[in-house]
Amino acid sequence: MSRSVRKIVLAYSGGLDTSVILKWLQDAYDAEVVTFTADLGQGEELGPARAKAEAAGVKEIFIDDLREEFVRDYVFPMVRANAVYEGLYLLGTSIARPLIAKRQVEIARLTGADAVAHGATGKGNDQVRFELAFAALDPSLKVIAPWREWSLNSRAKLIAYAEQHGVSVPRDKRGEAPFSVDANLWHTSSEGKILEDPAQEAADIVYQRTEDPENAPDKAQYVTIEFERGDAVAVDGKRMSPAGLLTHLNELGRVHGIGRLDLVENRFVGMKSRGVYETPGGTILMAAHRGIEQITLDRGAMHLKDELMPRYAKLIYEGFWFSPEREMLQAAIDLSQRHVTGEVRLKLYKGLASVVGRSSAHSLYSLEHVTFEEDEVYDQKDAEGFIRLNALRLSLLAARRKRLGGND
After folding, report:
1. Is 64 a catalytic residue?
2. Which residue of 94, 164, 315, 348 pairs with 326 in a disulfide if CB–CB is 3.0 to 4.6 A?
3. Residues 6-56: pLDDT tens digits?
4. How far are the Cα atoms of 92, 201, 281, 283 from residue 205, in angstroms, in the given order?
C-alpha cells in the first residue's frame, strides 16, 4: 500500500463479499469507510445494507435511489443507439457501472474522502469499467480493489475471515452458491459455477425475471409504445417516467418469457465468458425503437448509425462511457433522433416481441411511391439509367478480366 488514505467510499451492496471488504478496508488501511448503496432497480431490500453498515461502525451511509437517472441518462441514450455488443448482448451490467462510479466520486467530494473502492474481481470487466470512470471523473482519488490485493481467494476463506471478524454470514451463503447474479432495472446477469460449461443448457433456476416461454400465455398480447425524439414516453396511451415505463415493460416481458439470452462473450480482459441474461422490458423497447426508426430515419442516417453502433456498444462494454469518443458518437446519434417520434405496436407472444405496426407524423414512408398499383409520382423508366450508372464499374472490371484471360 504505497499511499495512506484517510477515508474510503465503498460501493456496498450489503452482501457477504462487500461486507467482508468493508471490514478488510477498515483493518488493512486503518481508514474510515463510507458506504454507498445504489438502488438501480435490482429488486432487493436495501434496508439490511444500512443495518449491516451501522453494525460495522460506519458513520456515513448513503443509500440512493438512482432508478430514474439510470434509465433517463444511461439506458435511454443507449437505446437511441440500438446498442448491442457482439450482436446479442444488451449491455445491462456495462451501462450501470458508470453511474455507480459517478455517484461514488460525488460522495467522495461530499465527504472529503481520498479513496474509492469496489468489489469487482481481477478477472472481470467491472474492475475496468469502475476504474476508467474514476480516472475520467477524478484521477486524484486512490482506487482500491481488494480482490487484487488480499489473499481471500475462495468462498471458504471469505467465510472464515467473516467469522473471525464478526461479519454476519447468512445461512444461504455458507454453501457454495450455484451461480452469481447481478441485477438492475434493465436486466439480470447470471454467470459462474453451474454456468461455466458452455455446452450445458442453463437450469431453470437460473432464470429469475422471466417465465419459461413454453409456459407463457397461449394468447398474444398487443402493446403500443409512443416515442418522442427517440425516447419512449408512453405505453398504451399512458405517459410514464423513464423508470416507470421500463418497470411496466419488464412485467409485460416477464409474463411472456421475453428477453432470455445465453451468450459466450469476449471479455475486455481477454478471456471468453458464458453468461445468461434476462432483459424483458429492454428487449421490447429495443424492438420498438427499431420499429419507429424504420419509418422516420433517412436511409443514409440509418445506415451510418448501424455502422457506428458496434463501436458505440464496444465503448460501453469496455468502460469508456465518459470518454470523448463516446460523447462524440452520442452527439451524432442524438442528432439523428430529432424526428424519431411516433407509435409502434408490438405483439408479445412466447418469448418474442414482434413489431406489427408503426405510425408517425414524421414518417418518410410514401405509399404513393411503393404501391404496386398505378401511380403518378414514380417513373419506372428512371431505374434504367440508375442501374446503368451503378453497373458501369462492374462492366469495366468484367472487360478487364476478359482482356487478361480471366485473371484479375
Report:
1. no
2. 315
3. 999 999 999 889 999 999 999 999 999 999 999 999 988 888 899 999 999
4. 20, 12, 20, 21
Distance CA 20, CA 155 (A): 11
User: Catalytic pick from 13, 17, 103, 260?
Assistant: 17
- Which of the residues 73, 168, 180, 290 is marked catalytic? 180
Q: Which of 67, 80, 97, 209 is catalytic?
A: 97
CA–centroid distance for 300 within its chain: 27
Of the residues 80, 126, 190, 260, only one is catalytic, namely 126
Is-catalytic flag, 126? Answer: yes
Q: Is this model's pTM higher than 0.85 or not? A: yes
Other Cβ atoms within 10 Å of 282 Cβ, number: 26
- Look at residues 130, 122, 92 and name the one whose alpha carbon lies nearest to residue 11: 130
Q: How many CA atoms lie within 13 A of 157 on its CB side?
A: 8
Give the gyration radius of the chain's Cα atoms: 25
273: annotated active-site residue: no
